[in-house]
Here is the input.
Amino acid sequence: MISPPSEVLNRRRKVPNSSEAGKRDASAPRRFAFGPFVLDLLRGTLVREGKPVAVGQKGLSLLQALVEAPTQALSRTALMEAAWSDAVVEESNLSVQIAALRKLLGPQPDGSEWIATVPRTGYRFAGSVHVLDPAADDALPSQLAGLSERASIAVLPFANVSGDREQAYLADGITEDIITALTRFRWFRVIGRNSSFVYKDKSVDSKQVGVASIPPGKRTKAHVHARHETAFYMLSGDELEMWSGDELQFRDLVHPGDYLYIPANVLHVAVNRASTPAAFIGARNEPTAQESVILFPKMDGKIP
Here is the structure.
């Protein structure tokens, strides 16, 4: 059975550089609890009774804005800025995301919605929100902690092709920033800097580290991962379209520096309409992952 479209988690966040990371306010609330849910801003996850809930990055951004100001009415403009600060989109996208969040969260114990509509204004979070102790931030959800067969990935050092030896520090810095950013994900292990830099200036087979690419003008077959989750980091290319949902009706754009998380049993197709290859580094949470890929040839024609 294919999961509903709301279970597609398309995590898109640019890799922060070292200076940006240092400016974060470590004292700011990072975990919020409401009903059976816990929203973890540090890891960018939502869990229900200890089990991860698949929700898109736009949905997470909207939920964050709402729970940080519980019972307060937030304007549509403020919510659009929270989720689409780097893009100009139609306001209807906000309604679609709110509807998806409501379906995902379900009703409160009293039957009311977690997210209430404020006529002529926007929306407000109607439930009771509790800020959790930051000391508990390092505790993994029970389901993620039980993944004993997590895959491992390594970020190989970037090569300095400028010919200027003084620019070598920049290539090393980019590698370190990517390693730091990938450690946010808990369903795979990230090889540390010292181990990765053993391969500096050496030739390594891309198959060793799970690097894949989609050639210009090509697309993947419509498929689901029946028994495994997949996480990708887009290394290079221009722009990739990720179509998902039971009818492949949802379209997200992925760019270099973005993360992409695909839960199990979610139908999806990746399309590269650009003139350059789209390269990824990826990891799966199951050693025999490739065996659980199921193709849906009748759905290939759904994407224009």
